Amino acid sequence: MSGDTQQGGGTDTLERELEELLNQEQLEDGDHERFSHYVQKEKILESALSGKPVIALCGKVWTPGRDPEKFPVCPTCKEIYDAMTK
């Protein structure tokens, strides 16, 4: 058993996959810019302190800087989140 304090068995795999995407710096534009995306709260805080980009559930990589309340939720992020919380 690892010393990981995260809950939800499959989050370790998702975390590794998201980290790989970040390392590949796959930056996407277009429709993703029109939405508010789901990201772990800890990652948002880390990004605010370090300036490093975050990865949304849908795979979008960016450095947060706008008010997410002003945009509709990304349908892909919502679908993935809903599937994870069932």
Describe this structure in words.
This protein is mostly helical and 86 residues long. It has three helices and two strands. It has helices at residues 11-24, 41-50, 75-84; strands at 54-55, 61-62. The protein is globular, with a radius of gyration of 13 Å.
Structure in a nutshell:
By secondary structure, this protein is mostly helical. The chain has helices at residues 11-24, 41-50, 75-84; strands spanning 54-55, 61-62.
Fold blueprint:
Elements: H1 11-24, H2 41-50, E1 54-55, E2 61-62, H3 75-84
Antiparallel strand pairs: 1-2
List keywords for this structure.
disordered N terminus; 3 helices; mainly alpha
H and E string: HHEEH
Strand content: under 5%
Distance between the termini: 24 Å
- Rounded average pLDDT: 77
Uncertain runs are 1-8, 24-29
Biggest beta sheet attributes: 2 strands, antiparallel
Radius of gyration: 13 Å
The helix count comes to: 3
Number of strands: 2
Helix content: 25-40%
Tell me, what's the shape?
globular
